[in-house]
Design goal:
This protein has 414 residues and is an all-alpha fold. The protein is built from 16 helices and no strands.
């Protein structure tokens, strides 16, 4: 029926306006990244240039120029985004210019410096999205972007699976194909691994043939992401997925039909892949016994030691482009730490860390609103962003920024 609602975890049907230019720009960036991109390319080339042009078409240059000049768009009808709009210009200034000056004065390599700045630029994509969020088509942009980020995740998983040999397709075996080692830990992979099964549960809750068919397609589409997470024994990703399922089952946001649908999907997964799931869990336990916290305590010590690099280091850091020696990396000095807070303190000091936390605080209230309206998406955002900022170096990827944009875009669709 024309007036019938489409059941979902939130119980509200979205509107479907015509796709605007921003949606096409974001879709183009996602497709290019999915097919030929890399989470953190060593040497940006034609693909990265094309992606940058797509992002420019999506967000426009005006917002970036305004942000660099200390201004940001403030949607009058979106008070929950007010804090993000207020802190963004100051945070951008603190995170970009002082560490840039320190890095240039220290003589760090320009390539390393630019890679650091690219990661910070992705952090501010949701701020640029504020200029679009107040417009009517932002609901459509959110839907396109949600599908685009999930596409990146599934494509990265498939590219990884196709690159490894058949003998490596079992949990616990180091299956790092040449040039593909960072694909499994891109935030989009975990995003899709959480979102697609929850969307499948939404579809099953419709209790019709079309809903069942949609659920089957979504569940099958999630399999490459789930397989890659298991094969590479990503303990944090396994925990994040389990936590998301528990929140849906035990929290107050989902309807009874969606909960039972999720239980049904879980039961089918255990029936079909029970032995493989048990092998993955065993590998997770063995890895935890072997490596513990993966040297994060050592990284904290490295970050604290960076505060003594020069008199201004506690406040301003060592600057963008600085390299660090990580015991867990045998390839020599690297430009990253795995925990975003350690990374910011090392390179931008206490001032930069405070600025990064301010941006996170500005996104917290809109994310809480998203959790009430669309728990499936909110949990996929929380799991992928949380892991990227605390376990992997996913905070330096384009996927990280695009997922944060979903908090801004999709909030207006429910």
């Amino acid at each position: 029926m024309s007036g019938e609602r489409v059941p979902s975890l939130s119980g509200v049907a979205p509107s479907r306006p015509a796709p605007p230019l921003a949606a096409f720009g974001l879709a183009g960036a996602c497709v290019l990244q999915a097919v030929a991109g890399s989470p953190t390319p060593d040497a940006p080339g034609a693909v990265e240039a094309a992606i940058a042009l797509c992002l420019l078409a999506a967000f426009g240059a005006g917002g970036a120029v305004a942000l660099a000049c200390g201004r940001s768009h403030r949607p009058a009808d979106r008070p929950e985004l007010g804090l993000l709009a207020a802190v963004a210009p100051v945070a951008f200034t603190v995170l970009v210019w002082p560490p840039l000056a320190v890095g240039l004065a220290a003589g760090w390599r320009v390539g390393d410096l630019l890679r650091d700045l690219a990661g910070i630029a992705f952090l501010f994509l949701p701020v640029l999205a504020l200029g679009i969020a107040g417009r009517e088509p932002s609901a459509t942009i959110g839907r396109w972007l949600e599908a685009g980020v999930a596409t990146i995740g599934v494509a990265f998983a498939l590219r990884f699976l196709l690159a490894v040999g058949p003998e490596d397709l079992r949990p616990g075996v180091p299956a790092w194909a040449d040039g593909m080692r960072y694909l499994p830990t891109d935030p989009a992979v975990l995003f899709a691994a959480i979102l697609l099964p929850l969307r499948a549960a939404e579809a099953m809750a419709r209790r019709c043939l079309a809903g069942t068919a949609t659920a089957a397609i979504l569940a099958i589409t999630a399999l490459p992401c789930l397989a890659v997470i298991g094969l590479t024994v990503q303990r944090g990703a396994v925990a994040a997925g389990a936590a998301a399922a528990l929140v849906i089952l035990l929290g107050p946001w989902a309807g009874r039909g969606a909960r039972w649908a999720l239980v049904g999907l879980g039961g089918m997964a255990l029936a079909v892949g029970g032995p493989w799931i048990a092998t993955v869990l065993t590998a997770v336990i063995d890895k935890t016994r072997a490596v513990g916290a993966n040297g994060r305590g050592t990284e904290l010590s490295i970050a604290l030691d960076a505060g003594a690099a020069w008199p201004g280091a506690p406040l301003l850091g060592r600057g963008w482009g600085a390299l660090v020696d990580l015991p867990s990396v045998a390839d020599g000095p690297v430009s990253y730490l795995h925990v975003f807070a350690f990374y910011l303190f090392t390179k931008a000091g206490l001032a930069g860390l405070t600025a990064g936390l301010a941006v996170a605080a500005g996104l917290l209230r809109p994310w809480a609103g998203l959790l009430r309206g669309d728990p499936a998406l909110a949990l996929a955002v929380a799991g992928s962003v949380g892991l990227a900022a605390s376990v992997h170096t996913g905070f330096k990827t384009m996927s990280f920024g695009l997922i944060l944009c979903l908090v801004v875009f999709r909030l207006s669709t429910r």
